[in-house]
Amino acid sequence: MLKVKFCGLTRAQDARLAGDLGVDAIGLILYKKSPRYVTLDGAQRIVHALPPWTARIGVFVNEEPAIIKKAIDALGLSAIQLHGDESPAFIEDLALHIPVIKALSATGGWPQRAQVYTSYPVLLDHATPGNPGGTGQTWDWSEMDPESRPGYFILAGGLTSDNVKDAVDSLRPDAVDVSSGIERSPGIKDSDRMQAFMKAVAQFRVQEYRNL
Question: pTM for the whole thing?
Fold first, then answer.
């Protein structure tokens, strides 16, 4: 069954609706340079609004391990998502404490970089210099070679209710991650767009896609 993550939440009411819609996970961006950054206090208000079955993912970029571990404890994180230049050794250490998702830019030789992280779910996003993700831009899905598909693959980058069906049909990801495609402005989610996105992926959430 296709999993869905709503990322970049900054308000408790958006988290509450995400839970009501049956979203599998939400993303809390704990990276200060992001327009969707939330403090630990703000993130606590968000997680308190979630049902217990909704996973809480902390998103970090080249952060200190002590700060990541503090957030894990304070928020009861289900997993962490790393968008920086974290080394395999750095990730292995954190993976002793919590599941790790490694985010990679889908531009410029990502299959080679993904081979370094075969033990972890890989999220492919559209990144630009100085912006490690959340750009709201799609990447060229036709470049995805089935032979290079990551083992557990999360698709991100410019997804909306209008294009997510084609994306899932083409790439068969295990999960999709959406942020700007369900927003009115960075970090402020739009209830109509949230509902439309879940409606667009509903057919994929009642059938299981397997690697071809």
Answer: 0.90
